[in-house]
Specification:
1 helix; 11% helix; mainly beta; 74 residues; single chain; two-stranded antiparallel ribbon; two-stranded antiparallel sheet
């Protein structure tokens, strides 16, 4: 959740570290615009998940996420 220049994890409520306008820890930001064939048609959902909550969330998946190592950081 973004609020007054701050970002919070929507799962645990943790405030994500930002110093001088720069994120000092990573966060997953999900933006979804729901469309046809959805009960949420015409709505847009946005949320943030801190790394700790992300790690806990993916442990609940029936099919694991695909993880690859990236050699270059863009």
């Amino acid at each position: 959740m973004e609020q007054q220049g701050n970002i919070f994890c929507n799962v645990c409520g943790k405030k994500i570290k930002i110093e001088q306008g720069i994120l000092r820890e990573d966060v997953l930001k999900v933006e979804k615009e729901w469309g046809y064939f959805s009960k949420k048609d015409t709505t847009r959902h946005v949320f943030h998940i801190c790394e700790e909550c992300y790690d806990a969330l993916i442990q609940t998946f029936a099919i694991p996420v695909t993880v690859t190592d990236e050699n270059e950081i863009v």
